[in-house]
Amino acid sequence: MKAKVKSTGPNSKPVWWCYIVSVLLILIYLLPIYIMLNLSFRTIQDIGSKLALPEVWNFQNYIEVFSSGDLWLGFKNSIVLMVETVVLEIGLSALGAYGLARSRNRLSNSLQGISMAVMMIPGTALLVGTYSLMVKFGMTNTLYGLALLSAAGGIPATMFMYMNFVVSIPTALDEAAAIDGAGVLRTFVQIIMPQLKAVTITRIIMSATGSWNNYMMPMYLLQNKSKFTIILVIKSAFNRTNGVGNMPKACATCAIGLLPVIVLYLFLQKYIIEGQIDSSVK
Question: Whole-angstrom Cα distance, residue 80 to residue 88?
């Protein structure tokens, strides 16, 4: 029989405390979701501990939420906002990254530095100026105005990720396409963009979820109830002022409103991880 070789490397000892920390972190992240789901199945009279299971399981909250027109209106507006934001952010960022990566001059380097600097500025710091600008151009209470603003906020980070990939693509492909008579735009669409599949999928997912969960700017820009996104519908459900608020129904609204994003992450998380790893390698 072969004797077992005992590992003497630096990682040979079992780091048992890592598992304990991981479990604790998972429980901390799941606790708010558990409380939300727990409350969503209660009646309004059930005011017991939020950690204890409901005394009587109430599914009427979900039935009322599904039959509400506000939920479906919020879904529609959020989908429109998400599609517009993703198309603008991905299209403009990919084109901009391609141009900057291929230019290699002082102007392109300056633009790259400005783009990196913009990434460091929090959106809250620009809130007053941004709101004033949107009012001046008449873009309040419009989904396309909010989409432009959301896409503009995500372009620097998206462009940075795209540039890491574009610079690794040989310029010989551009030269070969030019010899065959292809213009710059055709070269980008048919030659460059297909090789950016990993980062494109990653940024589509991140931009879509960011747009769906966006709260601050819709809260300030969308005062018309017909333009409310799903996040503002959830906010309204928790801020009922006429009579006693219905917390279980509000939690049911929140659970349904966040379900599309959770499902999107569960099914497409491998593309996010692959895109982030490929970007770091590039």
Answer: 12
Q: What does the CA dihedral 237, 127, 155, 109 come to, rounded to 10 degrees?
A: -160
Q: How sure is the predictor about 274, in pLDDT bands with cuts at 50, 70 and 90?
A: low
**pLDDT per residue as tens digits for the range 34-65:** 999 999 999 888 878 888 888 888 899 999 99
Query: What torsion, rounded to 10 degrees, do the Cα atoms 271, 115, 90, 272 define?
Result: 10
Q: What is the pLDDT of residues 255-264, one digit of tens each?
A: 999 888 888 7
Q: What is the mean pLDDT of residues 153-180?
A: 87
Q: Which two tokens stand for residue 176?
A: 């070969």
* 42 CB neighbour count, 10 Å cutoff: 23
